[in-house]
Amino acid sequence: MGSEGRAWNGAGMAAGSGYGGGVEAKATTTAVSAAAPAEVPTSAASVDISLPLLKMSPRIIALCKELVEGWSSIDSSLFSIETVSGGITNLLLKVSVKEDNGNESSVTVRLYGPNTDLVIDRKRELQAIPYLSAAGFGARLLGIFENGVVQSFIYARTLSPADMKEPKIAAEIAKELRKFHQVDIPGSKEPQLWNDIFKFLKKAAALKFEDNMKQKRYEKISFREIQDEVQELKDLLDILRAPVVYAHNDLLSGNLMLNDLEGKLYFIDFEYGSYSYRGYDIANHFNEYAGFDCDYNLYPDKDAQYHFFRNYLHTDRPSEVDAQDMEVLYVETNTFRLASHIYWALWALIQAKVSPIDFDYLGYFFLRYGEYKKQRESCFSLAQSFLSELKNG
């Protein structure tokens, strides 16, 4: 999502140890084929997201009556609409109707922010959502319209960044993430991370800002340096040969919900989902421990990471995970940590140009790229030392 909640103030996937120019995984993900998703109703209508809620409400109500089964004959006066969140890429609304028995039924309407198609592949997202939903992830997809979707309403609370590092919750996230990584989405299984990063880089390097102050800040950026960094990082990570999975790619606290009464954890918002590397998805999640203040000192230490890895690698008996498998995943994750910083840094540059939202995206670029440079030496050294030991041992 790179979105709701992202803010800033100012079967076995265990990897083995064989060396033959790279680390060979013992087993790739065992894909779990979900049942074929049911046909989802669609509408060519759109909603003007720039309008105040009161003025867009009639169109929202009409869309829900068209797309939600059983709602077509409900009188419009029985509908109520409230904002769930206004993130930095989307607007989420809760639409409710009063039933004859006095109960209330609700759905969520997600409206895409303007120009988000520059950083989000909507076709890829909409292809995946029905299969993820059929596999038990996220809200159920009820309908699709021109600039948004209608989904079932999840009765749960959104996690905070502090919640994610609680050992019990971290274990549940790890177990759920393993299951998520096993879902089979039809189509190409080629990892998209580097394709997306290079596309972002090309777009980011060709911007021009009308605001002089923004333009001056932008001109301080060396895109030649960034391109060289990305290529060197890719070359190193290619040697690690991390397993490819269907990844969420944006597992921040705002995309995690928990029903405390039922103990049910939900992953939501799959806008950035794609086939990618398991280490990237985990590293991106760990980077989000930094929270809304982007305090990367909160990145989990080795003990906390190993707790997560044990539950990810062996959901039934975490204590039986092989130490070597843990080390491989540790190296993999903490090298992909750098790719996460690069991805969101470049994402922020594009948003700085096209987003109408009042947010210091340029500052966010410098924050994330600065963190990349700060962590670069230790992360490269970790991977290079690991590969050297494998080669010599």
UniProtKB/TrEMBL annotation:
Pfam families: Choline_kinase. Pathway: Phospholipid metabolism; phosphatidylethanolamine biosynthesis; phosphatidylethanolamine from ethanolamine: step 1/3. GO terms for molecular function: ethanolamine kinase activity. The keyword Iron does not apply. The keyword Kinase applies. GO terms for cellular component: cytoplasm. InterPro entries: Kinase-like_dom_sf. It comes from the Eukaryota. Its EC number is 2.7.1.82. Keywords: Kinase, Transferase. It is an enzyme of class 2 (transferase). SUPFAM superfamilies: Protein kinase-like (PK-like). GO terms for biological process: phosphatidylethanolamine biosynthetic process. PANTHER family: CHOLINE/ETHANOALAMINE KINASE (PTHR22603), ETHANOLAMINE KINASE (PTHR22603:SF66). Belongs to the choline/ethanolamine kinase family. This is ethanolamine kinase.
